[in-house]
Design goal:
By secondary structure, the chain is α+β, with helices and mostly antiparallel strands. The protein is built from 15 helices and 23 strands. It comes from Nocardioides szechwanensis. One of its GO terms (molecular function) is hydrolase activity.
Amino acid sequence: MTPRSLLALPLGSALLAASLAAVPTSAAPAVAPAAAAKVTVTDGCLKSAPETKGGTPVKICYSIFRPAGATAAKRVPMVMHSHGWGGSRTTDAAEFTELTSAGYGVLSFDQRGWGESGGKAHVENPAYEGRDVRALVALISRLTWVQQDAKGDPRLGAIGGSYGGGYQFVGAFEELRVKGKPVFDALAPEITWHDLSQSLAPEGVVRTEWALALSAASVPAQALPNNIYKALVEGSATGQWPDGSTPGSENLVKFFEKNGPKWHVDHGRKLDIPVLFGQGTTDSLFPLQQGLANWQKAITKRARKQSMFIGYNGGHVLPSVLPQGVNVTSDPCSKRLAGGDFRDLTVKFFDANLKREPIEMRGLGKIHLATPTSTCTTVSSVAPNTTYAVGTVATTAGPAGAPVPYPVVEGPIRIAGSPYLTGSVTALGTDNRAFYGLAIGTTPLDAHLIQNNVLPIREVDPVTGVVRRIVLPSVAVNVPAGQTLYLIASPVSDTFATMGSRTPGAVVIDDTVVSLPVVGR
């Protein structure tokens, strides 16, 4: 499926198809009806923050799954769940069999603007979705069969991917901001973001396909505020991320400012609870470095010792053709640590942190990353530790220019983490752009991106010999003997379709040095 055909899907399913098809843990196993029948399901709605000051409260709808045997005398922990962008809550008890059969209650809810809930999607804004999650936590604290640690403080975990990971962070950070503690006892967010603006438009260069998909998925439910929908479409069409600098234009930077962990971290808040991070190594919307930023910045050092980071092959995936990428779906790290997939690891993680059972959790305090060949590499740090001089790196000129691979180092070598390059940049046009990533191949002719991602440089004004530090996509790869690690320099990227240079011209980097996180150095 090409990016263009993806966007031609029915509007409400476009992003879901891209998000879920390549997530190794998205499919629930078949469950006999009798097993699901033991769970009591209760549907309801509560009233939450109005869309405007003094307006009508917005209803937020939910389904509660009470496991067999849960009573006031035998209370159980609760796990919250919510959906991805364009989705709705889960109402089938069979979908949560791993949790309910393990003795957990589950509450799944429609986020604001989606499903049966009212209002508009403010994309995990603390003043809206944050208050919705807090209202749901208050509801859970009044359930007589849910374990309580204190008044208004239920024993609570959370699951969900993409937008369903975003609610976990806004909820936990808002509880921390308001009450001084996160209330949630453990989180398991998957394929979600740290900084939404940098995810959708790194360096102000719009991820065209994803901005359009987010917009399109919101149309059937009219979930987005109309001005924000128009701004996303405008950004995709013009190649300029709307920042309010043009009179009469929207300011997406301002709209998304508070909508992620970065805002809370910038205001001195960190979560001091265990977190099981799941992130797609081939994800091109919320790429690996977004999850790693949450690992490094959103939780405390003490919490990291009781947490773990799992990178699997999957996530929000669009075919990467120019430059050529990979198409792999696998989760070798969860298999190694839990004998199954990320869902199995999540139940074990909750058993240790919600039930507080004395079970051995392997891999705590570490980062575990899948490679394209479905091996698992474990590291304590993703920081580069080795440099390689590459010389002059230049893109071909023009919108039809081909990617150019430059050799960095021959195999065997193993890398895992967050590389970058430095060099002296010359770009003589106006608003010149180029895209960079790491690739592997036996020759330049068969070199392909390691994990589907490139990141841009943008020079708004002409520059000559200006020293820059350019972030490269975070990766994990084993480069065997006989193959070479390459730096790809490209004037175009299909993920950033039509986002190349505004005026023709090559981007040249002299004295290029690539810094790599080499494992086993």
